[in-house]
Amino acid sequence: MKKTFNSKVITLFPESFPGLLGVGVIGKALKNKLWKLQTIDIKKFGKGNYKKIDDTTAGGGPGMILKADVLGPAIDKSLKGCEDKKMPIIYLSPRGKPLTQSKVKKLSKNDGLILLCGRYEGVDQRLLEKYKIEEISLGDFILAGGEIAAQATLEAIIRLIPGILGDAESLKNETFNSDLLEFPQYTRPRKWKNIEIPEVLNSGNHKNIDIWRKEMSKKLTKRNRPDLWEKYKKKQDIK
Ligand SMILES: C[S@@+](CC[C@H](N)C(=O)[O-])C[C@H]1O[C@@H](n2cnc3c(N)ncnc32)[C@H](O)[C@@H]1O
Q1: CB-CB neighbours of 169 under 10 Å
Q2: Measuring from atom 12 of ligand 1, which residue has the nearest CA?
Q3: Residue 216 confidence class, pLDDT cut points 50, 70, 90
Q4: C-alpha 84: how far from its chain's center?
Q5: Would the CB of 138 count as within 6 Å of ligand 1?
Q6: In the listed set 158, 189, 210, which residue is the last one of a domain according to the structure?
Q7: pLDDT value, residue 1
Q8: pLDDT, the chain, mean
Q9: Residue 198's domain spans which residues?
Q10: Which residues are registered as beta bridge partners of 52?
Q11: Pocket test for ligand 1, best of 143, 147, 151, 154 (most atoms within 8 A of CB)
């Protein structure tokens, strides 16, 4: 039997969870215990009378850094009871490798995941080295904190876990599952604001529909993601 995917999120704002992970199919699966979510509040590990969690940047510079001697115990707490499990620790960070669907697939094969959400200017580097924490980025932009990135990462992972999506078939044709972006999709009514659904999709001829979809995928990939198109061409040996 598949084990429940166990996720732990280390954050300054535990009240922001489950957030979007509490709605739709992912939320339903959470309620049905197909996956678990635990938050670890960084504030509880603060130092001294004022429960200090951050400090100024060594060497000077603007902003504050989350302290290693605060985050360390928070990580130790999240690791408790996970000793025999495959639980990678990930720090959501704009400096990390960009999250891709193939990385999401790999992560979904683990027993769970520990996600560290940064705030301010980030976290003390020694923490990342000591716990061999992998850095993952949501993209080339800066968020105010790691919480939205953690929710996006978890949502992408959880929907791949068998039994979570009603129609597992829908995962097959998705963008990034092949090297091409997904083709355009339509639904009833056949005519809307005087625009018709492409004729071939009403033809019932599945061979022609597949050919049309593949062509549209190629066209979209070429236009929107020249990087993916180059990769695809290389694989297919297209000049
Ligand atoms: C204001 S950012 C810190 C940015 C950092 N000083 C830098 O320049 O790389 C605060 C936190 O937001 C999160 N964050 C910001 N952008 C992100 C991104 N693109 N992907 C993942 N997490 C991000 C990280 O957890 C980060 O520690």
Answers
A1: 8
A2: 145
A3: very high
A4: 24
A5: yes
A6: 158
A7: 55
A8: 95
A9: 173-236
A10: 47
A11: 143
